[in-house]
Predict the structure.
Amino acid sequence: MNKTIPKGPSVKKARQMIKANPQMGWTDLSMQYGKNFIFQGSLVTSDANVARTMLMEREHTLKRSGIYKFMSWFIPGAPGVLFMEGEKWHQHVQAIMPVFTKSMIDTYAKTIHNIVLKNVHSWRDGMQLDDLYLTVTKIGLQVVLDVGYGLNYDQPLAAAYGKELMEYKLMTMTSDSRIDELGFSADQLLLIPSLFKNIRQLKQKMKVQQKLLKQILVERENNKDYGTDWISLFVKAGFSIDEMTNELNHVYGAFNAIDYTITCALYQLSCNKELRTIIRNELKEVIGTGRNPVREDMEALPHTINFMKEVYRYYPVAIAVMRKTGKTLEVDGSVYPEGKEVIIALQAMHHHPDYWDEPDKFNPNRWQLPLKEPRAYIPFLQGPRQCIGKHLAEFHFLITLNVIIQHWDIEIETPPKIGKYIIPRFDKPLPAIIHQHTIL
C-alpha cells in the first residue's frame, strides 16, 4: 500500500463546478477527480465500499466530525443528537427514540392523514400557490408538532412555538451567509459581518423558543399532561431547559428534510402524467379514498414505493455527510490516517454511472431490477449513526402523497433549481397551480 490518494480540485474550481450544475455537480467532481480524492486535507469519497466502511465499522462511528462540532458550538440552536458523541449521544438517543419506533409510528397514521386532509380541504380548483415547498412545510410542521411534540397546532401557544421553529429553519436555509458550502476560501471572510448578524438573529429566535417552551412546560405541569412525545420524554430524562430547547429545534430541522423530498416528489409527478396516473390508480385500488395507509399496505404498493425510493436517490436530503476516521482506512491501496475528516458524497454516489444506468434520469422503474451496487444507495445512511427517523420519514411521505395525489393535480411550470449548499433546498420559491382531480 504505497499509493497516494490523488488531490482534488481547488476550492474555486470545485465551487464553480457545483454552481454550474447543482443537481449533478458533485458527480462531475467524482467523474473528473475520481471516487476518492483529497480536498483541503479531507478525503472526499463517493466510493460505495469506503462509505460502507466509514458508516458500519464501529471505530469510525465513535467521534463526530470536527465540522459538526464547530457547527454545534457556533450556531445557536444547532446542538442536538446528530452532532453529539459518547455518553451524551446515547442519552439523547434513548430519550428521543420512542417517537421513532415502528409501533409508535403506526399509531400516528390516522393523525397524519387527518392533518394533511384538513390542509388540502382549503385548496380550490385553479388556486395558485406562491411556493409549493412552503405549503408542504406548513403541513409538515403541523404533523411534527402533533406526533413529535404532543402539541395541537390549533392552540395559540403551540402555533406560536411552531412558527418560531419553522422561521428558524427557513432563516438558516435562505441566509446569504450560509456556511455549508464545500470548502473554505479567503473570500468567505467577506461574509463575516452578515454571518454574525445572522447569528444574533438566531440567538434571538432561540430566546423566543425557550420562552414559549417554558410556557408549554408550565401548562403541562398544571394539567399533569405528560405522554410519550419528545417534550415529555425530555422532561423525564432530566434535560435542562437549554438542552430541551436546542434538541427540539434541532430535531425539527432534521424533520424538515421530509418536506423537501415531498416537494421534489410532487414536482416529478407534475412532469409525468403517466407516472402520476399509475401511482394514483395503485393508491386508489389498495387504499381507497376514505382511509389512511397502514404499514401493511406498503407491500401492495410496488409502483409507489419504487417512486419513493427514486425520489430519495435523485434528491438526497444531504448532498454529503461528514465523518472522522477512528482508525486507519484503506482507500484504493492507500492508507488514510486515523483522526482525519471524511466527506461522504451521497449525491455523487447516488448519481455515479458506475453504480446506476442513466443516473441523471429520474426513473422509478430501475427499482424493478436488482441494483448494480446496493451499497451505493444510502439515503438514510447505515450503521450505528444511521437516521433514526427513517420509518417516520417514509410513512409521512406515503400518507401525504396519498392524500394529495388522489384529489389534486399539481402544475409546476418552472423546474426547481437546487442551491449549491450541502443541505439542499430550492434557491427560490416554487410557484404551482393546483387542479382538483376528485371531490374531497
